[in-house]
Amino acid sequence: MNDPLASLRDIVLPPPVGWWPLAEVWWFIIVGTIGFVTWFVWFLWRNWKLDAYRREALQQLNAIERRWRDGELDNPVEAVNALLRQVAVTAYTRDRIAPLHGKAWAAFLRNNAVRVIAPDDLDELLALAYQADVSRETEKIERLLTFAREWIRRHHQ
């Protein structure tokens, strides 16, 4: 008697599916990822270049503060006010900034950096630039320097 199972053969499997060529969906994913990464790098580079004036202004503000702390600068308020004006002229137009002074200038500083908490007496702090002796106003100058640093970092256009 012949065994019927002896005549059976193993199932021949087809070769495994290769990963190349890629399916169309993978090409879309690859191209989309490359496009997104390219856009993101360009976005970061553009913002870094656009914020160059902020970085330079912060360096100048640090130099003003260092000179004041070392006793080389008697009244840093004038220099800080001039620096804030320079930053504002760079970020906005000269026509918009040039006529501002006094309360209008302080209001401009408050209104164009809503995420920065401006001191209530900002007008008074900026007016210290016109005082001869500000040696006793250390706390006010500290507040102005803090505000100026935050304003330069966070003002919006």
TrEMBL record:
Keywords: Membrane, Transmembrane, Transmembrane helix. Pfam families: DUF4381. It comes from the Bacteria. This is DUF4381 domain-containing protein. The chain crosses the membrane at residues 25-45.
